[in-house]
């Protein structure tokens, strides 16, 4: 299960996103809910139509006035959608637990920096990572609009959680391929998780501060890429300072003197 936790987590998040779309489709349209209520109950009339909705359990009510109240979502559908949410949420939480557990796995094989041009590796990490973050976050700003409109607030929230996890996974993969050395797979997981979540936190805080939330503007892609580059640069700087510490020389004498490798 731990080996397949990532795949199960993706399945769970996609299922929850599908649930939000199904609930949204079962409710009156946000564009013209009065029309949907009147169309669903053509024989009911009143002075004015009022409606109310809730997401969990899914519920939508059309109030025509004068005591004429109709349930837009049938009780049976509400129960089915609630059960689906509980199952998908449990599956997602279960998989997320095992994904987080990976951060405490044994370190694994230590990858040495011997015969590796660390400067070139760092530049690849910054260049490839910054470009990918820019593209991924730009795509997210577009997907977020559809998720918020078609799936409502839960859809936008689920997509945001999905994106934060995706950024962490992408940053970990980039760290494993181009990150600081020496290091282990666990080091890459930890650094990547910190960078991915930090990058998403930067665009989230900036969007809330700008007053655009829950809609992310295209400029957050550039902001996120910059935040990613800053975090990666800090990690490399820390790694370089550690690597220049005592015991890292080419010879035993240099190591004892704390001299850097040439």
Shape: elongated
- Major sheet: 3 strands, antiparallel
What low-confidence regions span 5 or more consecutive residues with pLDDT below 50?
Answer: 246-262
Radius of gyration: 25 Å
**Mean pLDDT over the residues:** 86
Helicity level, as a percent range? 55-70%
Number of helices: 7
* Proportion of beta-strand residues: under 5%
Query: What is the rounded distance between the termini?
Result: 45 Å
Question: Describe it for me?
Answer:
There is one protein chain. The protein is mainly alpha-helical and 262 residues long. Helices cover 67% and strands 5% of the residues. It has 7 helices and 3 strands; from the N terminus they run H-H-E-E-E-H-H-H-H-H. The chain has helices at residues 5-26, 33-40, 75-101, 118-178, 185-210, 219-243, 252-257; strands spanning 50-54, 59-63, 69-71. A 3-stranded antiparallel beta sheet has the order 1-2-3, covered by helices on one side. Strand 2 and strand 3 (69-71) form a beta hairpin. Helix 1 packs antiparallel against helix 3 (75-101) and helix 1 packs across helix 4. The longest helix has 61 residues, at 118-178. The radius of gyration is 25 Å and the shape is elongated. Residues 246-262 have low confidence and may be disordered.
Summarize the entry for a quick read.
The chain is mainly α and 262 residues long.
């Amino acid at each position: 299960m731990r080996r397949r936790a990532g795949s199960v987590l993706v399945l769970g998040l996609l299922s929850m996103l599908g649930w939000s779309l199904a609930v949204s489709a079962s409710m009156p349209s946000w564009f013209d809910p009065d029309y949907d209520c009147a169309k669903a109950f053509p024989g009911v009339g009143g002075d004015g139509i009022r409606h109310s909705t809730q997401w969990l359990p899914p519920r939508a009510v059309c109030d025509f006035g004068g005591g004429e109240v109709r349930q837009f979502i049938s009780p049976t559908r509400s129960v089915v959608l609630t059960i689906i949410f509980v199952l998908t949420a449990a599956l997602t939480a279960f998989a997320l637990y095992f994904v987080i557990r990976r951060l405490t796995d044994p370190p694994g094989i230590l990858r040495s920096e011997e015969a590796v041009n660390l400067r070139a590796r760092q530049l690849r990490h910054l260049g490839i990572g910054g470009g990918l973050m820019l593209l991924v976050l730009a795509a997210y700003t577009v997907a977020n609009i559809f998720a918020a409109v078609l799936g409502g607030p839960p859809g936008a929230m689920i997509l945001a959680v999905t994106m934060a996890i995706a950024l962490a996974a992408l940053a970990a993969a980039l760290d494993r391929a181009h990150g600081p050395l020496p290091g282990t797979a666990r080091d890459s997981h930890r650094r990547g998780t910190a960078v991915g979540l930090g990058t998403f936190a930067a665009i989230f805080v900036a969007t809330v501060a700008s007053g655009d939330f829950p809609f992310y503007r295209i400029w957050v892609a550039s902001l996120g890429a910059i935040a990613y580059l800053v975090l990666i640069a800090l990690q490399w700087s820390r790694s370089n300072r550690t690597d220049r510490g005592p015991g890292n020389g080419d010879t035993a004498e240099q190591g004892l003197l704390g001299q850097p490798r040439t």
